Amino acid sequence: MASEVKLPRLGQGMESGTVTKWLKSEGDAVAKGEPLYEIDTDKVTQEVESDFAGVLLKIALREGEAPVGQTIAYIGEAGEEVAAPEPEAAPQPEKVSDTKVSDTPAAAPPAPVTSNGRIKASPLARRLARERGIDIASLQGTGPDGRIVARDVEAGLAQPEAPAAAPSADIESIPLTNIRKTIARRLTAAWQAPVFQLTVTADMARANELVARARELNPDVRITVTDLLAKLCAQALMRHRDVNVQYSEDALLRFPTANVGIAVAAPQGLIVPVMRSVERLSLAEVAGVRGDIVSRARDNKLTTQDLEDGTFTISNLGMFGIEQFVAVLNPPQAAILAVGATVDTPVARNGAVEIRPVMSMTLTVDHRAVDGAEGADFLRTVKTFVEDPALAL
Predict the structure, then answer these.
(1) Cβ distance 325 to 336 under 8 Å?
(2) What is the SS3 assignment for 313?
(3) Which pLDDT does position 326 carry in this prediction?
(4) Which of 60, 178, 272, 282 has the fewest Cβ atoms nearer than 10 Å?
(5) Which of 95-109, 120-134, 246-260 bottoms out in mean pLDDT, i.e. has the lowest?
(6) 175: cis peptide before it, omega within 30°?
(7) What pLDDT is recorded for position 102?
(8) Is the pTM of this model over 0.70?
(9) Which stretches does DSSP call E strand in 238-372?
């Protein structure tokens, strides 16, 4: 009997996903664990491996959104027949009399299906309706059991008025991907959080020496200042556990390990893959993990698990020559560190002026989760570790 390929749940809170591409065609042999199709969630686009071995007998969903658990394909023995799903009945137009048009008002559309008083709709449909100003209660669902899905929101959009003047032919319209929409939604939520910023500068002389020596001892791994900062921040988070938290409406989630995210400018948008338990890793191990996740982020090969459970984020724009900036919070994390370029700067030391390599660090903190004194104490520890890394390592 053919096995049903169902849309999987790839992370906590996932209720639906969008099939964007099949990597196999009907009739192709499929091995267990072989990439079968690509799925787009609100976090990442990733390949999904087959749970079965056999022949791809039928693709039930070529592309589009489906709820978790819906059957999207069948895999079985060659030549095995699969019953085709019953097609949806096409709506028949009402007959209109040739002699008289009824003055009776059209019946109102059926009310949307609800569950426990809440309208049944996919998360993607709810988000689209919210972003486009559509009352989801005004829509009729065509998904399973009358559930409102993304196509219902698209169908509910009013036709835009014709522009007074035709737009220039040079203007390119680029549809928003699910990931870009998620970035917009999360950044909007971040701006609504009550945050504060703290800025310090750090002498990078010893840190730069340590990175240079570490590269000599580990020629096969490219160790960077970002790697060192991730390690030092992880050690500081273990000393200031009240900063190593995620904020939710009901509780603060304090994590036992420092899961440090690195902001990456990937082709599909800003992505923050997470390195787990960084406080337990050596500097060379941090560099190896960072190199792997950054490479996969730029190749669009991250999984949902690569983006979950982060407790702190580092955003480094120093390689672009940016000396100081403020990073936007990465909810539900409580803090993010913005790192600028190291600049030779005149500094007063022991009554004399010296030229020292100085780097600016700005910490953005969610005030709902972390108080000002806690944030300042944490950043002071980070500065101390940066200026004398031996204290942390």
Answers:
(1) no
(2) strand
(3) 96
(4) 282
(5) 95-109
(6) no
(7) 45
(8) no
(9) 245-247, 252-254, 260-262, 264-266, 269-271, 274-275, 312-316, 335-349, 352-366
Name all contacts of 265-268 with Cβ < 8 Å and 24+ positions apart: 266/297, 266/298, 266/300, 267/298, 267/300, 268/45, 268/177, 268/179, 268/180, 268/300
Q: Which of 28-42, 85-99, 101-115, 186-200 has the lowest mean pLDDT?
A: 85-99
Greater model confidence, 20 or 92: 20
33 contacts 49 by C-beta, under 8 angstroms: yes
- Which CA distances in Å does 329 have to 100, 188, 246, 333, 365? 63, 10, 12, 7, 7
Structure token pair of residue 131: 């972003």
Task: Please state the rounded mean pLDDT for residues 238-254.
Answer: 94
53-57, 190-194, 292-296: range with lowest mean pLDDT: 190-194
371: annotated active-site residue = yes
Our CA dihedral for 136, 142, 147, 149, rounded to 10 degrees, sits at -60
Which residue(s) pair with 197 in the sheet? 364
Q: State yes or no: pLDDT of 89 exceeds 50.
A: no
**133: its two tokens:** 């100003």
Q: Is 367 a catalytic residue?
A: yes
> For the stretch 120-154, what's the b/e string if a residue is b when 16 or more beta carbons lie within 10 angstroms of its beta carbon?
bbbebbbbbbeeeebebeebebebeebbbbbebbe
Q: What percent of the chain has pLDDT over 90?
A: 52
- Residue 337: name the closest of 309, 301, 361 by CA: 361
- CA 367 – CA 242 distance, rounded (Å): 12
Question: One of 51, 292, 309, 367 is an active-site residue; which one?
Answer: 367
The two structure tokens encoding residue 100: 């008289």
First to last CA, the chain: 58
* Residue 276 in tokens: 């787990």
Q: How far apart are CA 268 and CA 263, in angstroms?
A: 13
Write the single-letter amino acid at 87: P
Segment among 95-99, 236-240, 378-382 with least mean pLDDT:
95-99
Q: Which residues pair with 98 in a beta bridge?
A: none
What percent of the chain clears pLDDT 70, i.e. is strictly above it? 86
Residue appearing with tokens 């009402």: 94
